[in-house]
Amino acid sequence: MEAGSGGEGSEGEGESKGMSGGKKAGIVVGVIVAACMVGFGGLVYKKRQDNIRRSDYGYAARREIL
Hints:
By secondary structure, this protein is an all-alpha fold. The chain has one domain (2-65). Helices cover 92% and strands 0% of the residues.
């Protein structure tokens, strides 16, 4: 019986002391958005590096032909 009454008591206290569902959802959404931004930033960086490399190679190849 004590475990049951303790569980009920801690449930009420957990709601007042712990984070609400909205706060938890907000944190989850924030972490997901941050991870997506980091991934998108990495993709943009990689594409820019590829374009710079391709541009340098193309310029060098055109100079040799001319």
